[in-house]
Structures are given as structure tokens and as C-alpha cells.
Design a protein that fits this description.
Strand content: under 5%
Oligomer: single chain
Number of strands: 2
Largest sheet: 2 strands, antiparallel
Shape: elongated
Strand order of the largest sheet: 1-2
Structural class: mainly alpha
């Protein structure tokens, strides 16, 4: 189709439109689109036809297609405009504005047409509701840029501003466009509509305000602020009654005030508020600034507080400032924290300043509350953000001086000095004064505060700083300080701390005025803990403790823990004084929670724990206090004292020593260390370490003497000196003690001097008497004096004077008269009355009965009463008294000793058991001596039943323990009683029975030396020499033994001395002398056939050793024919018959041995004989088996049967002959191994197996042999002594053989 055809279709379409055939017209246009899709005219005709048909959407499409084909052609724009003239949907508002703007541009020069179009645009803009798009803005902007008609441009700007002012989100370009539009409209001055002009002013100012709020660039902020204020001035000029410019100006100036510290209401702000008040009345903003102004003038702050309405950060800053002026620190801190949450509502340029102001207010409140823990965080934060800010540095100096961190305080002060311009700056002078005051440089501090006050005469803080410094200074003018406090109170009527300080000034002279000031301070601030505490202290001074406690309790309830720290402390002290220690501890713990580094709180807590008896917790608290102040001598002393209470005396002495290193004249430490040494001495005496006890007493006396020199009228020191002197009384062998010479009265000579026990006790008596002089009504001290006199009489009873006797009785009677309810004093009086030399037994009985009445379960008095009855031979009464003592206290050792003495007197067998039990309870001289005596007596008389014999030759476990216990008691006794000859004799006997011959020899030697020194009678000397000589034989000192026997008078007339001498001669290889002595011994045995038989056996042994078998046989027969023959005799005869192969004699002897067992009534003796026979048979059978006698096997079988009758299990386990035969056949090892494993622990099987391995197998089984030897050593422990000796000899031989392998 050609162009001609297109034109024909266009013409036809035009005709159809004119004929109102719109469908046909659209068809024609469609035909054209088929030929030329971009035919502009066809799209216009189609749009017109569709519009006439009411097809608006199709019409829009056709018109828009046409516009896209040729945007500069007007027909499509006009068609689209006609469409929008009829109806505009909400979605097409922006497109309609673009269309009308395009037509405005096309209508340049046609003012009426343009005005009509702009009017339509304005109407559509009012319907947009802030929903702008870029196309609409660009269309309007194009009109402004292209139009040369002034009113068109102005009206287009109005359209643009109308759209942008309601737009929810503005881009930077749109903001600039909005500002430009407002500028053009306001600058034109042709806008007659005042209401519309005011709207443009509001839009413009709001936009500039938002820009100011968001502007954070310091370089641009001032320009934005000036622009904003200029806009506000312009609007005020044209619209003086409009509130917006006034409100914006007030907000801006108020924000500036909030960003400054300290906050001040500037004159500009006050003028702006007055202008706002004229326009808007008392709005919340006006009320806020009025409240700020009142706060700055310190007038009617409560009214100001009520006028504040907080809906932004500035409101909270003002509110916090008012609360701080009211000294309501709690609400100050709360308001500041709320303000910090709304910090984003401030202008960006002011946020840092407002943050600083709020933080400084918080810090001020914390410091006023003395809450240094939270203050630390704020100071650290502010110092990091504002390191050179003068106010931050000033507060830093104040904080660091309060917490005594003088290094950081000096650094902050130096930074402040480098920051401020003038040396007379108030902040710098105040900081200098605070630093000097904290260092106690009061003169310099006062000078700084005076200069600061001259530069700021109306400063409340300046008056308070100078007043406090003058009051704190020792040389300060207290009257001037009082006047300054009064002036500060006039300047600040709301400061309760000032009134409290005035009360402190009144308190020394006028307590009533002081109380009024404190009450007024509490009226102003009910949470002022210091004022409440001071008022409570006044109540305490008036004796009204209940009111004070009520006040302290209210403070602890209403105030924070930090503020109420002193109240908690006073409550704790009150409860401590009232012995309510648990409540006191709770109060002190609250104090510590408030201030962990307060040493006084830790000390009070420690004392409360101590008073309650919680010594470990008290020690921990004092330890914590020492960590805070390592140089605190008091804490060190109390720690030492508690360790002493806990019986940790060594640690206590170390602590006391540390205290004395800090102060050598610390009286309490000297006394405490002396007391600890005394306690260690007592423990040493209890454990029988007498030498150690003497050393401790010497050290104690040295310290206590120094203490007495420091405080000669302190009773406790003199008592301790007396206690130290009499402490060593149990040591009867005490010969010398080193004491300070001043105690002896020789102060001009050497510092220390050696004295004996009598002088030491005399010193103790004089010390007690000195204490009595200082405190004459003390029953305890009179008791001490009386007992010291008793101890003095014990040193040498033969020289006890009547003065000592009467003095002891008089002092104890005085003690009883002063305290008749004390059972201890009555008991002591009874002891003194019954003392040898005094012997007032009636008085003693009366005193003991009074003591029992004073304390019913009084074991001590009952035991003493029993001793009294025992001395008077009233055995039954004594027995009952001791029984009562045992009932009262079963562990009281004296009652058991008394019962043992009663049993001893009555000859009862349980006496040794009672003595034994007393020594197990505790060491006593009486119990130890009694127990040792009866053990030795029993051993000497060989009473198997009493010793619980197991096999006749050795002791069982129980008997061995008794022997060891007796020996241990005698060891302790001889240390403490070094001159008791009987004790050393008993000790020697006990050592001898244990086989400790060398120790026994030394004990007998010491006994002999003491007897010789004391010139004892011959009988005692003979016994001592005989015992000593016997032990010399045991230890191989035969020559010395012979000499000792020969020194014994009538030694040849005493059987055992004679036997001992004979043994000594024999052991020294002089058999002739030995035979002579033994022959004399036989003559001395006429009345004792058993002993005679044993002596004849000894003679026979000497003959056999000399090879004189006939003489040996004759002696043995003589012994055998002495009825009844001893078991030694029968055994020796049996062995002799075996050695001489006289088996008939052996059989007869064995038969006689069995008969001997049968007639023995004593089971223990019979058991002894059976064991002895078994041992002899054992040895003989082994000998016979080894010898290889033809009848040996039969003989061993018979012996096996005999031993079976004797019930000797050890022997029945094997046949020695059979074992020996197996050895020869090389089969013994397997047989003995079976026996060894079948009967583990059997001594004889072990020995035989070991012997077989040693003799036959040798090197191949050395490890096995070692095992058997070790088993033999273990098995031998339970066998009789003679078996032990024989077996050990064999084992030693095996070990020697092993060593050679």
C-alpha cells in the first residue's frame, strides 16, 4: 500500500469521526497501522474515536503511542488533556500533571490558557497527598526552566512546593528543589495570599530546621544555624503572631544551653521565651524554660520541677538539672538516663555536648552519693571522649582525690593547668585546693579556695570547699568555717549537706542546735544518710539508743547500700555491743558490700565473728584487712591472737613476732607471744618434752617481763608471769632455768641469769602477789598465790616451813571467801589442808564435800576425797569415792589410780590392769610408777597367768603391749624424775625383758650411781649391783661383771648372785672358778630342790664342755634324783642320752618329762613344759636323722606319737628321717615343696626346705632360697624366745652362705 492509500484511509477516518462513526474510524486507523504502525495522525484519530466511544484506556494508549512517536506534536497532548479534563483516576494524577505541564509549555504567550492549565495542575496536586514521582517533578521543573513568563514560573514553583512539602520522603535533589521553590516564592513578594505565604514560611523553616538537626559538620553548622534564625526572623516580621518561628528559636537556644555545662539560661533564650509566651501563652516549652530559669536562680525548685514536661532530651536535661539543684541524686541519675535514651532527638551538632552534660550530672550525683564504683566508669568514659575538657578534668581531679588516687589526680590537674588560659581560673584553683587538701597541705589548699572564692563570690561550692578545708585543718579557723557554711546555706536553701555541716559545727558546743540542723537537713532530703547518722549519734550521746537505732534502720531501708554504709556500720556496732552477733555480722557485711576496700569494716566484721566464736571466719576477715593495709599492726595482732585461740601457737608466735618487728614495744603482742610460748610449754609438758618446755618458759618470761616493764599495773601480765614460773613444777629434776635478771632483783647485772626451781617458784609467787596487790578482790589470784605456796613446799618437803603452810591455807581460804561457789577453790583448799605437814584432815574433808556440792559431777574432788580416805585407811569409803569420781568423769585418770591403790591395798589381782588403764588415759607419775612396779613384780615372780603367756618362753601380743607400755611410762618418768633410783631399776628390768640389754645396762648403772651418791643401805646397793652385773654378762663385759659381783657384800651367801658370778667366770673361760662358785650355789639351794636341780645342770654343762662326760653324767643324775627334777634337768638329760646313744636313758627321761607335765596343776606351767619338751624332741630328732642311726626312723615315729600327745602341731608335719633319706635319694626337694605349700607359714617346713636347697641344690635355686629365708624370718616372730634365737642363728648362717655365692 502506498502513501496515497494511507492518506486516503486517514481522510476516510476523519470523515467517519465527523460523521460520528467512531467504530468505522478505528477500523480505518487499524488499516493504517497495518501499513504504518508509527503513523502519528492515525494514533491521534484512533484515540479521539476511542474517547468518543468511552473507551478511555484505549484512548490513553493511542495518545501515548502518538506522543512516543512525536513528543513535540501538540495534538496527542491535547487529546490526552481532553481525556483528563473529563475524568482523572487516582493512578493517572501524575500523568495528568505531566500532560498539563507540557501544554503550559506549548501555550507560551497565551496567558489565559496557561493560567487555566496551572489551575488544573494545582487542583490535581491537592489530590496527590504527598505521592510524588520523578516524572511529575521533572515536568514542573521543565516548565520553570523553559517558561519566560514570571507569573507562570511563580505558579509552577507553587505547584512544586505544594507537591514536595507533603512528600513523605525527599531525595537530596527534591530537597534542593523545595528550598529553591520557597526561596523564589518568598523572594518574589508577589504572593498576595497571606495564608499561603505563611505556609511557605512554615515549610521553609521546617526544612531548614531538619537540616540543622541532621547537620553534623562543624564547618557547615554555623551557617545553617544563622540561616534558620534568619528565616525565623523573616517569618516573625511578616507573621508576628505565628508561633513557629518563636518555637524553633527557643528550641535552638535551649538545645545550646543543654549542650553546655554548667547549664545556664541565656538572655537570648529568655527573650525568645517571652516572645513565645506572648504568642502561645504558657506552653510546655515556655514552662520548661521557666523551670530552667528558676533552677538557675535556686528559687522555688519544687514548683519548677512540677512545670517540666519531658517529651524530648532537652526536657530530661532540664529535669535532671532541677533534681540536682534539689540534691535529689536518685532522680537526677534516673532523668539523665532517660535523656540519654532520647539523645537522637537533639540536633546532631549538639548531641556530644548534651551527652557530656548528662554524664557530668550523673558523675556529680554519684560523687555526692559517694558511689565511687560507678563514678569510675563515668570518669573513664568522659576522659576518653573529652580528654581536654576543663570540666571533665576538674571532675577527674575531684574524683581521684576522693578515692585517694593522688597520682592520677596530679596528672588530671596538670592537664587542666595546660588547658585553661589563666592561672586564676576558678576550676584550676578549685582543683588545686582539692589536691592540696587531700595531701593534707591545708595552708596551700585554703589559699587556693580563697582565690577561687574571690573569682566566684556567689559560688556555693566555693564557700563549701573553703569551709570544709578550714574545718578539716587542725589549725583551721573553725568559727570562720561555721560562718562560711551558714553563707553557703543561704545561697543554696536546698542543700541538706550544708545544714549537716552546720550541725557538725554546733555539735561540740550545742548539741540541741546540732540536732535541729540535722532534722532540717533530713526534712530537705529524707535520704541524706550522713545527716541521719549524725542525728542518730546525737541520740546516742543523749542516751536515747532506741531512737538512734530506729533512725539507722530507716536509713538502711530507704537509702542505697553505698549511702547507708555508715548507718550499717553503726547498727553493726550496736548489735555487737548487745551481743547480737549474727545481726552485727549481717550489718558489717552490708558495709563491706558498699565499700570492699574499707579496712575498718573488715576489722569490725572480724571482731563480730570473733565474739560469736567463729574464729576461722574472723581470721579470714583480718587477713583481708591485712591485704588492704599490710602495715596494720592491730590486724596482725588480732590474727595472731585468733591463731592462739585456735591452738596454732607456732603460727601465732610468728604473727606476734611480725608485729613486734613493726613496734618492739607493742604491749599486747609481747603479752600474746609470751602467752603462746606458755601454751607451747604446757603442751610440751603434756607430751613429756620437758627440755622443750623449759626453753618455751624462758622465752615466755623474757617477753612477759618486757610487757610488765611497759605496763606494770596490768594484772594479766603478772598472772602470766606466775603461770609461767609454776608451769614447770611437774619437772622434779629441774636444776636451772634462764630468766631475766630483773625478776630475781638483780637488774644492774647481766640481762639473764640462771636460777633453780625453788627460786623460779618464788618468782611465780611474787608475781601472783603483785597481781593481788593490783586486784585484791580477785578470788582467782588468791587461788594462784595459794597453789604457788603449795608448789614451793613440794620442792623440798623436809624444809617446808610453817610460814608456807599457813600462807597457802590463808590464801586459799581468802579465795573461797571471795567466791564460795567455785568448786576449784574448795578443792584446792582441801588439798592444802591434807598436805603433809599441815594435815588438817577435817578441814580437808569439809572442803572436798563443799567442792562436790558446788559441782555434783566433780571427779577431781571425789578423787581427792578418796585419797584422803585412803590415807586414813578408810578403804571402803575410799573405794566409793573413787567410784563416784569414775562415774562423774570416766576419763579422769586420778580416779583409776585411786582404784588401783585400793585394789593393791586389798590384794586384788586387777591392780595391774587398773594401773595399765590409767597410763593409757594419760601420763601421770603415780600411775606410771605403780604400773611399772607390778609389771616388774610379775616378771620377777614368773607368773604366767598374769602375763598371759603363750608358750612358756615368750609373751603373747597383749603381754608384749603391756611390757612396752610400762617401759614407755618409765622412760617418761625417769626424764622428769631423774633422781628416782627405783624408777631406773624398773626401767632396767623392762629393757632386759625386751632383750634390750645395752639400754638395760645403762638404766641399772644409773640406778647404782644414784644409790651410791645417796648413800643408800647395803641391801639396795646389793640388788642394784647384782642387776648391773647380770646385764654386763649379757653385753659381754665379763670382767667388769665379775668385779661388780665381787663388790656385792655377801655375794657368795646369795643364791642368784652366786649363780651370776659363776656364769660370769664360765663366760670368761675360767671354768675352775665357775665350778667353785656353782658348788657354793648348790649349798645355798638346800631348801629349793628345783633350783638345786638347775644349778647341778649348769655344773654338768661345764663338765661336758670340758670333755668330762662322766662327771657330766654324774651331775645330771644328781640333778635328776633331786625331787622334783626341774624341766631343765630332764631336757639336759634327754639331750645327753641322745648324744651318747643311750636310748634307754632317753626313753626313761622322756617318760619322766611326761609325768612332770601330768602332776602340774597350773595349766600355764604345763603348757610351758609341753612347749619345752617339743622343742627338745625337735632338736634331738633332727640330730638323730642326720646321724643316720639304724633305728632312727622308728625313733622319729615314736617321737612323732609323743608330740602328737603333746599337741605340738609344728613337729607333726614331717618325719625328719624320711626327709633325710629323700635328700640322699635326690627326691627331698619335691617332698618338702609339697609340705611347704600344704602348710604355709610353718616354721619347721620352711627351715628344712631352706636347708635342703642350701646343702644339695645350691646355685640353681638361689632366688628360691632367698624367698625361703624371708619366709622363715617372718614365721619365727610368733615362736618362743629360745626358738627365735636358734632359728635366727640358722638363718644368719644361710645368709652368710648366700653372700658367698
Amino acid at each position: 500500500m502506498t502513501t496515497k492509500e494511507v492518506k486516503a484511509h486517514l481522510k476516510a477516518a476523519r470523515s467517519s469521526i465527523d460523521a460520528k462513526k467512531y467504530e468505522e474510524a478505528i477500523e480505518k486507523c487499524q488499516m493504517i497501522f497495518a501499513i504504518d504502525a508509527n503513523n502519528y495522525q492515525a494514533h491521534v484519530f484512533a484515540g479521539l474515536a476511542a474517547l468518543q466511544l468511552g473507551k478511555e484506556e484505549e484512548a490513553k494508549q493511542y495518545y501515548r503511542s502518538a506522543i512516543s512517536i512525536s513528543p513535540t506534536e501538540q495534538l496527542a497532548w491535547k487529546g490526552l488533556a481532553n481525556l483528563y479534563n473529563k475524568h482523572v483516576d487516582q493512578k493517572d494524577l501524575s500523568d495528568a500533571i505531566v500532560t498539563y505541564c507540557k501544554l503550559v509549555m506549548f501555550s507560551e504567550g497565551d496567558n489565559s490558557r496557561q493560567a487555566e492549565l496551572l489551575k488544573k495542575i494545582t487542583a490535581i496536586v491537592s489530590s496527590l497527598a504527598g505521592a510524588c514521582d520523578q516524572a511529575t517533578i521533572d515536568a514542573c521543573k521543565s516548565v520553570v526552566e523553559s517558561s519566560k513568563t514570571e507569573h507562570v514560573v511563580l505558579e509552577t514553583w507553587q505547584v512544586l512546593v505544594g507537591m514536595l512539602k507533603d512528600c513523605r520522603t525527599l531525595t537530596n535533589d527534591w530537597e534542593k528543589l523545595l528550598v529553591s521553590g520557597c526561596d523564589e516564592i518568598l523572594a518574589s513578594g508577589h504572593l498576595a495570599n497571606k495564608e499561603l505565604l505563611a505556609t511557605y514560611h512554615v515549610v521553609y523553616i521546617n526544612h531548614i530546621e531538619r537540616k540543622f538537626m541532621d547537620c553534623g559538620e562543624l564547618s557547615a553548622i554555623e551557617e545553617v544555624k544563622r540561616h534558620l534564625l534568619r528565616c525565623c526572623d523573616n517569618m516573625r516580621t511578616e507573621f508576628p503572631s505565628h508561633p513557629l518561628p518563636h518555637v524553633v528559636t527557643v528550641k535552638l537556644l535551649l538545645g545550646q544551653c543543654c549542650a553546655e555545662y554548667p547549664m545556664q539560661a541565656s538572655s537570648e533564650l529568655l527573650a525568645a521565651v517571652e516572645a513565645l509566651r506572648m504568642v502561645e501563652g504558657d506552653s510546655h516549652l515556655v514552662a520548661l524554660v521557666d523551670a530552667l530559669n528558676l533552677a538557675m536562680q535556686l528559687k522555688d525548685l519544687h514548683k519548677a520541677k512540677e512545670r517540666v514536661i519531658t517529651n524530648d532530651c532537652s526536657g530530661y536535661v532540664v529535669k535532671a538539672t532541677i533534681y540536682f539543684k534539689l540534691h535529689d541524686t536518685t532522680n537526677t541519675i534516673a532523668s539523665c538516663h532517660e535523656g540519654l535514651k532520647l539523645l537522637d532527638t537533639c540536633a546532631a551538632s549538639m548531641r556530644d555536648g548534651v551527652f557530656r552534660s548528662l554524664k557530668l550530672l550523673i558523675l556529680s550525683a554519684y560523687l555526692e552519693n559517694e558511689d565511687y564504683k560507678n563514678s569510675t566508669d563515668v570518669v573513664t568514659q568522659l576522659s576518653a571522649l573529652h580528654p581536654t575538657d576543663p570540666w571533665v578534668l576538674s571532675f577527674s581531679v575531684k574524683f581521684y582525690t576522693l578515692v585517694r588516687d593522688y597520682d592520677n589526680a596530679a596528672k588530671a590537674h596538670q592537664q587542666l593547668a595546660n588547658t585553661v588560659d589563666r592561672n586564676d581560673d576558678v576550676l584550676l584553683l578549685t582543683s588545686s585546693g582539692l589536691l592540696h587538701q587531700s595531701l593534707k597541705e591545708y595552708d596551700r589548699a585554703i589559699k587556693c579556695f580563697e582565690q577561687a572564692l574571690e573569682n566566684g563570690p556567689s559560688s556555693v561550692e566555693g564557700h563549701l570547699n573553703l569551709a570544709r578545708c578550714l574545718w578539716e585543718s587542725p589549725a583551721g579557723d573553725k568559727k570562720r568555717s561555721h560562718n562560711l557554711f551558714l553563707k553557703a546555706a543561704k545561697l543554696d536553701l536546698y542543700n541538706s549537706d550544708t545544714l549537716r555541716a552546720i550541725g557538725d559545727c554546733y555539735r561540740p558546743t550545742n548539741i540541741n542546735n546540732a540536732k535541729k540542723c540535722y532534722q532540717k537537713a533530713l526534712h530537705l532530703n529524707p535520704t541524706n544518710a550522713k545527716a541521719a547518722i549524725s542525728l542518730g549519734d546525737c541520740y546516742v550521746s543523749d542516751g536515747n539508743e532506741d531512737a538512734a537505732v530506729e533512725l539507722y534502720t530507716r536509713v538502711t531501708t530507704e537509702c542505697s547500700v553505698v549511702s547507708a554504709k555508715e548507718a550499717w556500720l553503726r547498727l553493726g556496732l550496736y548489735y555487737n555491743n548487745k551481743t547480737q552477733y549474727s545481726d552485727a555480722i549481717k550489718s558489717f557485711l552490708k558495709c563491706i558490700h558498699a565499700d570492699l576496700h574499707n579496712i575498718h569494716c573488715w576489722e569490725c566484721l572480724a571482731e563480730a565473728y570473733f565474739n560469736r566464736g567463729s574464729y576461722s571466719n574472723s581470721l579470714k576477715a583480718f587477713t583481708k584487712a591485712l591485704e588492704l593495709d599490710p602495715d596494720s599492726l592491730y590486724c596482725q595482732y588480732r590474727s595472731a591472737f585468733i591463731k592462739h585461740k585456735l591452738s596454732n601457737f607456732a603460727a601465732a608466735i610468728a604473727e606476734y613476732t611480725a608485729v613486734l618487728e613493726g613496734d618492739k614495744n607493742y604491749f599486747a603482742a609481747l603479752k600474746g607471744r609470751g602467752e603462746s610460748f606458755l601454751s607451747l610449754a604446757r603442751l610440751s609438758l603434756k607430751d613429756n618434752f620437758d627440755g622443750r618446755a623449759v626453753d618455751y618458759v624462758c622465752k615466755a618470761l623474757k617477753d612477759l617481763t618486757r610487757a610488765a616493764r611497759l605496763r606494770s599495773r596490768f594484772v594479766g601480765v603478772w598472772k602470766l608471769i606466775g603461770d609461767s614460773c609454776v608451769c614447770l613444777n611437774p619437772i622434779t629434776s629441774l636444776t636451772s632455768v634462764v630468766v631475766p635478771s630483773v625478776l630475781v632483783g638483780e637488774a644492774g647485772k647481766e640481762e639473764e641469769i640462771k636460777i633453780d626451781k625453788a627460786v623460779l617458784l618464788n618468782i611465780g609467787t611474787r608475781a601472783y602477789k603483785r597481781a593481788v596487790e593490783l586486784e585484791p578482790e580477785s578470788a582467782c589470784l588468791w587461788y594462784d598465790v595459794g597453789t604457788s605456796y603449795l608448789y614451793a613446799m613440794q620442792v623440798d618437803p623436809t624444809k617446808a616451813s610453817s610460814f608456807l603452810q599457813e600462807a597457802a591455807l590463808s590464801c586459799l581460804k581468802k579465795a573461797v571467801s571471795l567466791d564460795p561457789t567455785s568448786y576449784v577453790y574448795w578443792n584446792a583448799l582441801g588439798v592444802a589442808a591434807a598436805y603433809p605437814g599441815i594435815e588438817k584432815f577435817s578441814l580437808a574433808q569439809h572442803a572436798f564435800i563443799k567442792s562436790i556440792r558446788a559441782l555434783q559431777d566433780n571427779a577431781m574432788a571425789w578423787a581427792n576425797l578418796g585419797v584422803l580416805y585412803l590415807r586414813k585407811d578408810q578403804i571402803e569409803l575410799a573405794y566409793k569415792a573413787f567410784c563416784n569420781a569414775q562415774s562423774a568423769d570416766p576419763s579422769y585418770v586420778i580416779s583409776w589410780i585411786g582404784q588401783a591403790l585400793v585394789a593393791e591395798t586389798m590384794g586384788r589381782v586387777e591392780k595391774m590392769d587398773l594401773f595399765s588403764h590409767s597410763t593409757e588415759l594419760a601420763y601421770t607419775s603415780e600411775g606410771s610408777m605403780g604400773f611399772a612396779y607390778w609389771v616388774c613384780h610379775t616378771l620377777t615372780n614368773l607368773q604366767p597367768k598374769m602375763l598371759l603367756l603363750k608358750s612358756g618362753c615368750g609373751l603373747n601380743d597383749a603381754a608384749s603391749k603391756l611390757l612396752l607400755l610400762a617401759r614407755d611410762c618409765m622412760q617418761k618418768y625417769t626424764v622428769r624424775h631423774a633422781s628416782d633410783t627405783s624408777a631406773f631399776n624398773y626401767l632396767g628390768l623392762l629393757y632386759e625383758n625386751e632383750g634390750l640389754h645395752h639400754s638395760a645396762k645403762e638404766a641399772f648403772k644409773r640406778s647404782l650411781q644414784l644409790l651410791e651418791t645417796s648413800r643408800a643401805n647395803n641391801h639396795q646397793l646389793n640388788i642394784a649391783r647384782e642387776n648391773y652385773a647380770r646385764l654386763l654378762c649379757y653385753t659381754g663385759d665379763y670382767v667388769e661383771a665379775i668385779m661388780m659381783y665381787e663388790q656385792t657384800e655377801e655375794a657368795m651367801e646369795m643364791l642368784f648372785s652366786c649363780c651370776g658370778l659363776g656364769l660370769a667366770w664360765n663366760l670368761s673361760s675360767n671354768s675352775q672358778k665357775s665350778l667353785q662358785v656353782y658348788t657354793q650355789a648348790v649349798k645355798l639351794c638346800d631348801n629349793d630342790n628345783t633350783l638345786k636341780s638347775s644349778v647341778l645342770v649348769a655344773i654338768a654343762m661345764i663338765h661336758y664342755a670340758a670333755g668330762e662326760k662322766n662327771k657330766c653324767k654324774t651331775c645330771l643324775f644328781s640333778a635328776f634324783q633331786t625331787p622334783p627334777p626341774s624341766m631343765h634337768c630332764l631336757a639336759a638329760l634327754a639331750v645327753f642320752s641322745c648324744l651318747t646313744d643311750d636310748w634307754s636313758l632317753f626313753t626313761a627321761t622322756l617318760t619322766e618329762m611326761l609325768k612332770t607335765i601330768e602332776w602340774q596343776a597350773d595349766e600355764s606351767a604345763a603348757a610351758y613344759s609341753m612347749e619345752y619338751i617339743s622343742l627338745v624332741l625337735q632338736c634331738i630328732s633332727v640330730h638323730v636323722a642326720k646321724k643316720g642311726h639304724p633305728t632312727a626312723k622308728k625313733f622319729c615315729t615314736e617321737i612323732d606319737n609323743i608330740c602328737g600327745k603333746l599337741k605340738h602341731d609344728d613337729f607333726k608335719l614331717y618325719n625328719p628321717v624320711e626327709a633325710t633319706g629323700l635328700v640322699k635319694q635326690g627326691k627331698n626337694f619335691t617332698h618338702l615343696q609339697k609340705m611347704y605349700h600344704s602348710h604355709p607359714g610353718n616354721l619347721w617346713s620352711i627351715l628344712m626346705l631352706a636347708q635342703t636347697v642350701a646343702s644339695e641344690l645350691k646355685h640353681r635355686f638361689v632366688p628360691l632360697l632367698k624367698i625361703y629365708v624371708a619366709d622363715a624370718l617372718q614365721a619365727v616372730q610368733g615362736h618362743p624366745k629360745r626358738v627365735q634365737e636358734l632359728t635366727k642363728l640358722f638363718i644368719i648362717t644361710l645368709n652368710n652362705w648366700l653372700a658367698k655365692l
